[in-house]
Amino acid sequence: MNFLTSFFLMLSAVSTIALADCEKLTEFCSKTGFGKVQSQAQAYGCAADMTTFKVSGTDCRIFNPSKYIWYSADSKCADGSNKIINILVQHYDGKCL
């Protein structure tokens, strides 16, 4: 096997591991995200429908020590409008911020 083939196989393996770690972090930080979505909905004068709570995006680049996870949920506001509440949670040094 030549160097380039070995190099690309190694990168593929690292990417697969990083993706698995990112999925674990979305679960690990979901409690923080859940609370932040509820707080933001209340700040807007809305009631969050937490049955729609989900991960809406991730940024888990391999060489970045911080990982970013976006959570969202639908909400119903006092004025009758509907809003989607989006929250960013940063995972750094074992903590969800």
Question: Helices and strands in order, then pairings?
Answer:
Layout (H helix, E strand, L loop, with lengths): L2 H26 L1 H14 L2 E14 L7 E11 L4 E11 L2 E2 L1
Antiparallel strand pairs: 1-2, 2-3, 3-4
Largest sheet: 4 strands, antiparallel
Number of alpha- plus pi-helical segments:
2
What's the alpha carbon Rg, rounded to whole Å? 18 Å
Strand content: 35-45%
Gap between N and C termini: 44 Å
* Alpha-beta classification: alpha+beta
* Series of secondary-structure elements, N-terminal to C-terminal: HHEEEE
Shape descriptor: elongated
Side-by-side strand order of the widest sheet: 1-2-3-4
Mean pLDDT: 86
Helix content: 40-55%
Quaternary state of the chains: single chain
List low-pLDDT spans.
7-19
Q: How many beta-strand segments? A: 4
Provide tags for this entry.
97 residues, alpha+beta, four-stranded antiparallel β-sheet, 2 helices, 4 strands
Written description of the protein model:
Helix content is 41%, strand content 39%. It contains two helices and four strands. It has a four-stranded antiparallel sheet. The longest helix is centred in the N-terminal third of the chain and has 26 residues, at 3-28.
Summarize the structure.
This protein is of the alpha+beta class and 97 residues long.
